[in-house]
Structure formats: C-alpha cells, structure tokens
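Homework help board

Subject: predicted structure for assignment chain

Our instructor gave us this sequence and asked us to write out the predicted structure in token form, then describe one feature. I got the tokens but I'm not sure how to describe them. Can anyone check?
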Amino acid sequence: MMDEKNDPYLIEACIKKDLAAWSILVKKYSGLIYTSIENRLKKYGLDASIHDIEDIRQNIFSDIWKNGKLSHITNRDDISYWIAILSGNAAVEHFRSSQARQSRNTIPLSHKIDEKELNEIFPSDIPGPNDELARAETQERIELAIESLPASEKLMIKLYLIHNKKYHEIAEFLSVPKGTVSSYIKRAKEKLKEALKDN
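My token output:
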C-alpha cells in the first residue's frame, strides 16, 4: 500500500513511470495546482475561465510527466511549494500565449484605453474618436499597431493599457525589473505613435 503522504516515495516512483504512484500524486496535488493558477491570475486582476484553468492544470501534469521534471527536485520531503511556483509560472505563460493568440476583433481597445493615454499615443494631428466611425477606426488602428510590436513589448503594453496594470504590478507578474517594464512600455508607446502617424 502506497503512503500518499510520503512525497519522496511518490516522486521516486513517478520518475520510474509508476502509474499507480502517478495517480496518487495527481489526486494529491490537483487541488493545489488549480488554486495556485487561480490565485496567481486573480492577484493581478486577470480573469481565466474554469476551462482555461483546467487546461493549464492538465498541461502542467503532462509537462511534469513527459519531461521528467520531478527528477530535478532537490527537496522531496514536501513539494507543495515547488508545485505552487510551477503552477503560478504556468498561469503566466498561459496568459502570455492567450494574449498572443487573441484576435484583435475581440479586444475593444478604444473603449479600454482612457483619453489621457490616447492623447499620449496618438500624434497631435490625428483627430480624436468623436463619433462611432472615428472610434471604430481608432480601435482598428491601435489594434494593428499593437499587434505589430515585438512579443515582450506587446504583452507589457497590453497589461498596461488594456488591463490597467501599474509598472510594479507588471514587473512582479512577469518577474522582471520595474525599470525594464518602464523602458519597454516607453519604447512601445513611441513605436505606436510612429505607426499611427504613418497610417
């Protein structure tokens, strides 16, 4: 009979591809993984559906099993912390990927970016969105300009403009220095301004 509380035993058995041990490990940590994913996203005000969280959880288990990640754990007495960190990081990566895949037609950018930011990004000679047609054109131009940015700049500018995150929140979420966030967003704004001016 396997001891469900004995992490070192379970880990060793799972590394050897013991399916019974793996089943116990999945059952034991499934809830923690789900909660860790949900909490990491909620902490930064980012929403994920139950379906998304379940997909992330399944991907985590698949990654651990296929890539033998358990063999890299040094402290096997209690892997709760390792599981929580792994799950939080997977949530961030899922968010990165979903932002990259997101269709521009599903992002009402012109409704989410406040007037101050629009004025900062738009060249002064471009009229503001004063009517429905202008708003639609504004949205399309901003979306196209943002999608043309490099991946890192695109993600940070979306977190900043669309999700209204502060620099320190973005830095903490992406595990990068605050100065890096500031530089990327400044560069992204300059590129957006140039792109919108050229259109």
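Reply (TA_rk): Your tokens look well-formed. For the description, you could write something like this. Residues 103-107 have pLDDT under 50 and may be disordered. That's the kind of observation they're looking for.
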